Amino acid sequence: MSTDKEATPAPAAPAAPAAAQQAPQLQVDESAAISLYSNFCRVTGTPEELIIDFGLNSQPMGVPDKPIKITQRIIVNYFTAKRMLAALQMSVQRHEAAFGVLETDIQKRLVRR
To answer: pLDDT exceeding 70 applies to what percent of the chain?
Structure first.
């Protein structure tokens, strides 16, 4: 047996900061996209997935007297949901920085007017 130590590779150079690296550009085909308006969203889920339902509440003041019709449903895993949450949060922060804080409580919005 040899007592000489085997040569070990030199440590890798530190990675460049994320800002210095350019992210690859994603190409998106929107030709089959359907755009719908929604003012109602319900989130339910299972241990593996989130189910996000969208619909139109024709009676946004008070409790509606007829059911809200769900028109779209998106089912995502929790990893995708977390990425979506981060993207939505960043978009809302940018909007609020430009236009002011969004009040989600309609009663408080009505009092301000």
So the answer is: 81
